[in-house]
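for the recovery benchmark. tokens below, seq after
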């Protein structure tokens, strides 16, 4: 009898869990842009490097119409210094160096991840929210926060972050044995824009679909 009762309770619990999951709605990111900046100790325009990296996949999970969290996977193999129109010899060399064991070890760690855990509204600020989450780079996970403009309309999400800093040493992104590392600032800046819909570039709002 006890076994029968225990089995019945397990079935009820499982049904409750699956019912919750069934009610979740997952919305994929369809538009994204991620930029990065790195600096020498003497921070000037000539000593500043910048570039891009691409989002491999991204999604937001909703419970009814309430945003629960977000999961984002970054393709580190797409890491690039400069831009497509400025791939001279120096930029190609820097890109290869960043992907090597000197920095991001892309062959060993081809993916980075960001798990968005919560969004707290801000008042009277340049940005309307603070975003909380966990970022994983080279297998190291750190909890971070940053300001952003966040717009949520039912199942449409737009997030435009401020430029925020990560400490590269927290993620073991540095020359292992070279004096070169002492000339590089520990802060690396990130800024991104992601959306579950195609954006109007002028107003940064989702483009309405034509009926």
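predicted aa per position
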């Amino acid at each position: 009898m006890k076994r029968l009762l225990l089995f019945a309770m397990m079935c009820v619990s499982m049904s409750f869990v699956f019912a919750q999951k069934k009610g979740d709605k997952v919305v994929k990111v369809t538009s994204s842009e991620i930029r990065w900046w790195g600096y020498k100790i003497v921070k000037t325009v000539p000593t500043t490097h910048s570039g891009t990296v691409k989002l491999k996949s991204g999604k937001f999970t909703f419970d009814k119409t309430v945003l629960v969290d977000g999961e984002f996977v970054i393709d580190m193999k797409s890491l690039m210094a400069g831009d497509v129109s400025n791939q001279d010899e120096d930029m190609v060399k820097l890109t290869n160096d960043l992907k090597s064991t000197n920095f991001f070890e892309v062959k060993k760690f081809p993916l980075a991840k960001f798990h968005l855990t919560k969004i707290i509204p801000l008042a009277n600020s340049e940005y309307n929210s603070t975003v909380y989450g966990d970022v994983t780079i080279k297998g190291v996970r750190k909890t971070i926060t940053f300001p952003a403009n966040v717009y949520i309309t039912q199942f449409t999400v737009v997030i435009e972050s401020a430029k925020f800093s990560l400490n590269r040493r927290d993620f073991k992104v540095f020359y292992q044995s070279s004096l070169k590392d002492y000339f590089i600032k520990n802060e690396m800046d990130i800024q991104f824009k992601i959306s579950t819909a195609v954006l109007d570039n002028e107003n940064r709002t989702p483009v309405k679909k034509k009926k």
